Amino acid sequence: MAPPKPKEVAKAPAAPAGAVVKKRKFGVPRNYNLGNGVVRFSKTKMFHKKAKYKFIGKKNPKAEKPKKPTVVVKTIGGEKNGGTRTVLLKRRKSFYPTQDKITTRSHHKTFSKHVRRTRPSLTVGTVCILLAGRHAGKRVVLVGVLPSGLLLITGPFAFNSCPLRRVSQRYVIGTSTKVDLGKFKLPKHLNDDYFKKNKKSTKRSVKRKQGEDIFASKKEKYVPSEQRKTDQKSVDEAVIKAIGLRADKKQLRGYLRAAFGLRSSQYPHRMCF
To answer: Rg of the chain's alpha carbons, rounded to an integer?
Structure first.
């Protein structure tokens, strides 16, 4: 197929008298459109490696850096020793370890520096549904978010026997029901250290009495302290008072007392809580 004829170029304006006019040469392009977006030669065939020739005959050559000496020649005494010796400036290692060194990283400290993020639906006063633990299925009120990222919730205890507890937001469904706690502020001593258990090592005490197992170890039963009881009452009073100010207080009390459950053909991802 013959290449198409070049289009007629618009005539340039007339040059002034006495000026030298240079004639422009128009050649036929090697590559042209064959129709429907198809070109005669591809981009790879029309590519010219021009960058290679930019540095040929360059006026300012790259300055070579002086090489650091690795060997020094020393004179030595003795008739049969040759007079000189080449000695390495940096000695080679006499010992190469067979295993890499284990570098200790402070991974325990970095966890406390992580940024905690809670879901936007989990705000103070939100009624939540617990999904795990011994209180699973109960509806509770979110009281605060601790520095560790855990949620602090309460039943209240008088409604569903759920005390002040720390819960991860993974095991909680945040509902659209919210209790306006007003100017309620969580006491400063209710932090993560407050809820830590004293893990005492229960050593096996050898018992020589007849009829008792020498390998038996008794576990101490957990009993809430007086401080825990007073804190539970003070927090629950603020929550119950806020519930009593609502117009639907009777329905909300029954809602918190009732347990959450699913029947057949009921799917939580299709529900609006």
So the answer is: 42
